[in-house]
Amino acid sequence: MKSSFATLFYKEVLRVWKVAFQTLLAPILTALLYLLIFSHVLEQHVEVYPGVRYTAFLIPGLVMMSVLQNAFANSSSSLIQSKITGNIVFVLLAPIAYGEFFAAYVLASVVRGLAVGAGVYLAALGFAAPPMLHPLWIVLFAVLGSAFLGAMGMVAGIWAEKFDQLAGFQNFIIMPLTFLSGVFYSIHSLPEFWQGLSRFNPFFYMIDGFRYGFFGVSDISPWFSLAVVGVCFAAMAAFTLAMLRSGYKLRL
Amino acid sequence: MAFAVEVCQVSKRFGSLQAVDNVDLTIEAGEFFGLLGPNGAGKTTLINLLAGLARPDSGKLSILGHDVVDHYRDSRRLLGVVPQELVFDPFFTVRESLRLQSGYFGLRCNDAWIDEVMHHLDLTDKADTNMRRLSGGMKRRVLVAQALVHKPPVIVLDEPTAGVDVELRQGLWRFIQRLNSEGHTVLLTTHYLEEAEALCNRVAMLKRGKIVALDTMKNLLGSVATCRVQLRLSGALPAVLLPQLVEQSGDSHTLALESYPALESVLAQLREANVSVLEMSLQQADLEEVFLQVVGRE
Hints:
The complex is a heterodimer of chains A (252) and B (298).
Chain A: H1 4-18, H2 20-42, H3 54-85, H4 88-92, H5 98-124, H6 135-159, H7 163-179, H8 192-198, H9 202-215, H10 222-246
Helix pairs in contact in A: 1-5, 2-3, 2-5, 3-5, 3-6, 3-7, 3-9, 5-6, 5-10, 6-9, 6-10, 9-10
Chain B: E1 5-14, E2 17-27, E3 32-36, H1 43-51, E4 58-63, E5 66-67, H2 72-77, E6 79-82, H3 94-104, H4 111-120, H5 136-148, E7 154-158, H6 166-181, E8 185-189, H7 193-199, E9 202-207, E10 210-216, H8 217-222, E11 227-233, E12 245-249, E13 252-257, H9 262-272, E14 277-284, H10 287-297
Parallel strand pairs in B: 3-8, 3-9, 6-7, 7-8
Antiparallel strand pairs in B: 1-2, 1-4, 4-5, 9-10, 11-13, 11-14, 12-13
Helix pairs in contact in B: 3-5
């Protein structure tokens, strides 16, 4: 017996693969453009960590940003497309448990996030090669962060009734939180007020913890960041599962 | 033994619209059951409630004894639904869509059955074609195939032949009748009443969310005049026959007959009135007649 979860997960990954140009290659290219421009402009002027080139500092941030944004885009776009075209009915008619539904979409988001992240990292090696001092932390933050964004994407995909609303979610929540999370800078370079505010941004802990895996240096203890990201994921997972169980905007 | 479908005092409201109003209905295993009604009568809502696509405000629904809310996984495994809307996943081919649907129901290595379903629905040539490239009729066939891919004991067909050609209809009904003869229960909604008349053993008619008729096809057909006679006459219809007049167009008159022997008396009345019959044809009472009487009655 092949479980419903395995099929739904396979279908989501197959969907990503079928439009790989848009789902994998395009975000890698976007991240490389960021890298090209920011490293060219700031390389000679900024040194965030002592002895670490700005380009090398930037690469983990860009990799994690790509992981997070693509994990969100995966589950949210898949769900809203299925809702708008109506083919969500094939999944809703099947004997798929809420947990399986959740796990399949989140895991597919993690896979896409990690694939894009790996692609950005490999392509960025042509610019600089940041060390990977603690690979386990890198994997841990990449998986937990993409799972959190995958779950958040499910919430957005279920809530939104049209692409416009989803774009709003992406542009007014995901994008600001990502850009204000320390992808391009260390929060110690910010004024005190913004430093304090950054500590309420869960994306900051994902980026900071992920970067710790490369350099062994971070703004916050990686254990604390891990706890914050873990709690955020648990809360988002519980919220998403509650939405699925209630049938909110999926079942009339 | 549990009913194939059991609907017990089910109601569902959408805002001010009472879509389903305290409906009670049971369908025995192996029946070919028709659910008829005008647009907006609540047929699709009732099907959505059975399939778990909607949740009842009150009442209980079960498939072969499994409650559709409390034991939704068991009930969904036993149910195959052909939705009314023409929906498809544009990323996949026909075979991929069917394999995925099979997998959702926990079935692996189901290609033999998938091939058989595709053969019966004339989809074999299109197996590797992307869903986007199919015509509307072909997409409808795939929807039917997706509903049958896990061999459900209870098959729900919500307007399965809307917008499809005669060839598919005939092929589809042959296949569904074969499944029915093998023990699958079929619940059909259709606007083609002749299809329901030809296929269904029992019929329920819905109007404004309520069941207004529920009986065997034989009893429903027997509840209206057995037949009608259409006459073209040389003169006016005698007054004594006016109560039987159903329709008049020029010199053509349609009269309802309670039985075939009643035709004798009609002809006798015409002879007595010195009116000649120029043309005559007999029409058997059909489901459309019953439908119009029942649905138009309230």
